[in-house]
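Posting for a labmate who doesn't have an account.
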Amino acid sequence: MRYVTGVLRGTVRLIGRWQAIDGISDAVSDLVAKLTGSTPVKNLLSGTFMGHPLHPALTDVPIGAWLAATTVDVVAGERDAAAAQTLVGLGVLAAVPTGISGSSDWSTTYGPDKRIGLVHAVVNISATTLQAASWLARRRGHRGRGAVLSLVGLGLTLGSAYLGGHLTLSRGVGVNHTAFEEPSEEWTDVAAEAELGPGSLTRVEVGGVPVVLIKRHGEVHALSAVCTHAGGPLDGGTLDTSGCVTCPWHGSRFRIDDGSVQRGPASEPAPRWDVKIEDGRVLVRA
């Protein structure tokens, strides 16, 4: 088992160092970013509307359908050939929105993560192509050929799922970057109100947790300064006239009064802090 683990991890490291694919990766990424750049599209594909990344939820459908199809092939054979064909087709259809949402997430990654993500996508496309070929073979009455194609496609899908799991669970791509903050619930003095200019974004720390203070229309707001999407510094972003702060890394936009996401790729709101002013001093608490 230790040998298998070593091989898997070594393979992923090699992919992450494969700089030869950077040219292709960057070109495809730029195209995807342009196609998915509008706010409604980005919010839909990022899962902003549901408060959770969309791509991981969608992956269950094609994987489950293709696994079920292969199970039916093995257990039932000719008896339930129609059911297996339907499951294969369902997986192929579900793979389309799954791939689109994943490509949108991938377009905001860098370096080793982007290289691994590109290989992840290529393997998934290959698997989906085999499943589509399986469906056509079954439709033409070649159930055995279709079953073999499905089995090979499922194997590729599971291998790709390992890469996806590595990106999420080992590299932290797509996780909430404020999830492990331990914000203080005690009122903490962090700044003098006079130091905060109109429209300013001021970074302070409360018990090791970075917080951005935002003064707008004479009122002070506070959010966790780390963007929930990829950890970008919100204090380095911009404040617009609608009362939203935009992350400088990938353009996620949050309302300053409640932290809600107005534009992806972030799907989790920015943690909001309570603010009060006493004797000209700004105090905050989680």
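Reply:
Got it, the structure tokens are right above this. The CA atoms of residues 200 and 214 lie 6 Å apart.
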